[in-house]
Amino acid sequence: PFHWKFTLQCGLSWACDVIEIMLLSFLIPNIIGTVFLEDASTAKKDTYGFLLGAVTFGGILLGSLAFGWFSDRFGRRVGYLFSTLLIAIFGLL
């Protein structure tokens, strides 16, 4: 029973994280085109779209390293719950 609940919770939080990343791939062209660079050239929009995606994945890399250290220091359960809480909070924003 515990392992099934834990597997379900891990799978659902992983799926939520993946959905946010997938949505970002659809939203980047709209964000760049309407919010930041309305009158810019296509090449400039593509460059900024690439940079926005690169910064996103750079943040994922740094967050993975930070939460890996945090989990080693304070325990896997606390690290997992804290990272899931942050994903939920920032996902709702």
Structure explained in plain terms:
- The protein starts with a helix and ends with a helix.
- The mean pLDDT is about 85.
- Helix 1 packs antiparallel against helix 2, helix 1 packs parallel to helix 3 (about 75-90) and helix 2 (about 40-75) runs antiparallel to helix 3 (about 75-90).
- It has helices at about 1-35, 40-75, 75-90.
- The protein is elongated.
- It is mostly helical.
SSE blueprint:
Elements: H1 2-36, H2 42-74, H3 76-92
Helix pairs in contact: 1-2, 1-3, 2-3
Provide a compact summary of the structure.
With 93 residues, this protein is mostly helical. Helices cover 91% and strands 0% of the residues.
Write a concise keyword list for the protein shown above.
single chain, 93 residues, mainly alpha
CA-to-CA gap between the ends? 33 Å
Give the topology string: H per helix, E per strand: HHH
**Can you give the helix content as a percent range?**
over 70%
**What kind of sheet is the major sheet?**
none
Instruction: Give the total of beta strands.
Output: 0
The parts where pLDDT drops under 50 for at least 5 residues are none
Overall mean pLDDT stands at 84
What coarse outline follows from CA principal-axis ratios? elongated
- Give the count of helical stretches: 3
Radius of gyration: 17 Å
Strand content bin: under 5%
The computed structural class is mainly alpha
